[in-house]
Amino acid sequence: MKDVNRPEVEHIVSLVLKELGHDKPASALRQDHHPERLSEPPESTDPDCIYFSEEKEWGIEHPHNEQVLARARSLTPARIGIGRAGTRMKTKSYLQFRLDQAAAHDAVFKEVSPRFLEELGLPILHTQAETMEQYLMDLDSGRRLSEESEKWLKAHAPKGKQVQIIVSDGLSSSAIEANIKDLLPALIQGLELKKISLGQPVFIKRGRVWVQDQVAAIVNCDVVISLIGERPGLATAESLSAYLIYRPNQNSVESDRTVIANIHKGGLPPVEAGAYLADLIEDILRLKVSGVKYTQLREGK
Amino acid sequence: MKLSCVIKNQHFQFSSVKEVLAKASEPKSGDAMAKIGAESALERVAAKVVLSELTLEDIYEHPVIPYEQDEVTRVIYDDLNQSIYREIKHWTVGQLREYILSSKTGQPELTRISRGLTSEMIAAVAKLMSSIDLVLASQKIRHQAFCNTLIGEPGRLAFRCQPNHPSDDPEGILASIKEGLSYGSGDAVIGINPNIDTVDNVKRLLTITHDFIQKWEIPTQNCVLAHITTQIKALEQGAPIALMFQSLAGTQKANEAFGVSKEILDEGRALMLQKGTSTGPNVMYFETGQGSEVSLDAHEGVDMQTLESRTYGYARHWQPFMVNNVSGFIGPEILYDGRQVIRADLEDLFMGKMNGLPMGIAPTYTNHMYADQNDQEIAGILTAVAGANFYMGLPAGDDVMLNYQDTSYHDDASLREMLGLRPLREFEKWLEKMGIMEDGKLTDRAGDLSIFD
Description:
The structure holds two protein chains of two kinds.
Chain A: H1 8-19, H2 66-74, H3 91-109, H4 114-120, E1 124-126, H5 132-137, H6 147-156, E2 163-168, H7 173-193, E3 202-205, H8 211-219, E4 223-229, E5 240-246, E6 258-263, H9 270-287, H10 291-300
Parallel strand pairs in A: 1-3, 2-3, 2-4
Antiparallel strand pairs in A: 4-5, 5-6
Chain B: E1 4-7, E2 10-13, H1 17-23, H2 29-33, H3 41-53, H4 56-61, H5 71-78, H6 82-88, H7 93-101, H8 107-114, H9 119-126, H10 131-140, E3 145-146, E4 150-151, E5 158-161, H11 170-182, E6 189-192, H12 199-215, E7 222-224, H13 228-236, E8 244-247, H14 252-258, H15 262-275, E9 284-288, H16 292-295, H17 304-315, E10 322-325, H18 338-354, E11 359-361, H19 373-385, E12 390-393, E13 398-399, E14 404-405, H20 409-419, H21 425-433, E15 437-438, E16 441-442
Parallel strand pairs in B: 5-6, 5-12, 6-7, 8-9, 9-10, 10-11
Antiparallel strand pairs in B: 1-2, 3-4, 13-14, 15-16
């Protein structure tokens, strides 16, 4: 199936929706079902190598109305018109489903590759979650830095800057590897152009959103922004969210955070997201508030 | 009240009914995260031993959250039949288990005693039951309800067609509805989870589904699973609603986080009976699932399974058409793997039925759990054997809006075929009229959405 190009206006609508705190499942206006697959596959030296098609199967041999079926399939990323073997899925569709689920599952359990982190060059901090297992099972363990990382941050991080950036694998290492190399430079450049001062960005392994409150308190910044891998779905495992909060304190609640979800090349593309986030941070710094209150203030003006 | 025991030369002392209930639960990660589960396998069995000797009166006199403090407790106690309760209050939980499993006990007896059982007694007995116990007991109970169609008849299995779309595109949603109907899915309800929870959007989605149902004369009901207050506003503005939806939990605190209360549910149901498009009297659709209270930090020290049973006791008050259990939707911190999901599904089906509900199951998993399609299908087969009223139906089981997996249109058709179950009566006739089904089997035309052109 051809990917449907989202008109610009829809894109802006999606940004506004996200800004209104509408941080619902990642996928707001995602129209293309398999964005990752746009990239070229690696070449095999085996002439018999199978290049398994990931296009939705046309599973109905003699449809009642071919045009109606083709149009229906273009209107939704849902797996429809895939036919059946008895009451079961056909082999190709079944394997595609397993493939997408495997990719989504792996995205959670795979760590960001050491080489990627090395190239990224950010200081690597840890939370109290010593294993992925602990991270998944004990929400609090990912919300606090390890003792060592806390010490390091206190000793080495520049303090009193306007913005602190955190990159964290969260529930999808694929989201980090797919987006950060475009997103982070775009964001940093955007902030520099606006003459907004920036602390040393850090990578926090196995971090949850709330660890940003502890980091903000240590580095004494105005806005802390976390770029975190989202819980992967079958349509994409590469989706990333940005959580921002202005001067968090012990009374901060979830609705004090501004969330921009659905950052990936099939949703809000990472370069664009970087520029957009820089604008958003500028605005939050100006209004000195984030989350629902920020939205209300903007709406009010 | 006996709260201690000696097993394998070890002494176990528990401090409350609440603690016994929590520690007698089968292992689940949500109870471990809340630090209320048993700390060893032996302690778990010790709690089961103590629980088996508690009387129903012990449980009645010690609700896990006090009546004065919690609306869920109040609704359950106020709806209890005191006369039936007095007949059985001297039973131990162990005796209750044997009564339920006795071959002399059938649906009439179970329906009768269930009017005298609090939800915590039902949770308690489920903690003494194995997988086969739960399936056998569930098979004995089948509750029917009527909206536009009759759900829960023996030998019939219904499905909700769940045609979600990431941007609520009406045509995209209709495409998935057609696909589902062509597989025979949609007799329980055509129900959309909206991505955008606004009154205008909800009205729009209700109208397109209503019009489609009218045009094709489908014996079913429509529903948009927005927040109940959004649906109430849509209904006041004349939107065509056949079935009203809300998620529920087992503590007042969690329901407050959901933005729901007895008062709002009363208002919603009353309005449905006045302005809804359906015959009724069962016009409500609830969703529940183990662990929502833990996720919202509103569990009040009570285990997930007991809270789930309380949710059913609460839900029953509004005589729902369907109650759907979605344990498995949250993540591994609640239910770790396929095994824990399957156990929860079996418990929930049994507890829902014992609480008098027309119960369905959504065996689900997220991608950060240790579960996959095989686990889900096992849970589907087991709960179908146990006599669930309905399941969900999604295109290939992949929800492209909510990012999780549930039963597919293919699974729906397969479960019917495997167990010789038929669609709901009126809907089966419609499928035959459309040429999709013949003698309970899908025809060659089935699975082709373009027949709705």
